[in-house]
Amino acid sequence: MGRISGDDFRSADKLPLVVVLDNVRSLHNVGSVFRTSDAFRVECIMLCGITATPPSAEIHKTALGAEDVVEWQYYNSTIEAVQALRDKGYKVYSIEQCQGSIELQSFVTAQGEHYAVVFGNEVKGVQQDVVNLSDGAIEIPQFGTKHSLNVSVTAGMVIWEFAKKLGWV
Known about the structure:
This protein is α/β, with parallel strands linked by helices. It contains 6 helices and 7 strands, in the order αβαβαβαβββαβα. It has a 7-stranded parallel beta sheet with strand order 3-2-1-6-4-7-5, sandwiched between helices. Helix 2 packs parallel to helix 3 and helix 2 (27-39) runs parallel beside helix 6.
């Protein structure tokens, strides 16, 4: 299948994208984000607030070992994580439906830039102070009766779209 080893993964070029989980409470969602981040060689995952960290049997259940190869960091607050990213020159975007948000398909990336995307709590979304600190907000257009998607589904869609826009796929 052409899979790379964990050691090769760690040393391989990474998609210039950091995933930030803002108080995501489901360990299964966390594990799923690890697995998707592995699939697209995301640079790092920042786990913030109440978001659980490895090692965890529940995270492993959906991550299937991706938590052992994808770099991750823990921050007590998402604000701290976003500020650290901004200090390093990352463009940070909250994935949230709000005034002034850009639809995912219309978002334009720039070659050479490094990006971070913030995914919020399953009920409350991205904290407003995090949205305010971000460079902008991106939303996935929806046409049904619900106004949200599962956070792990959203992460998969957004990471895929960034991989396409940055020329990885």
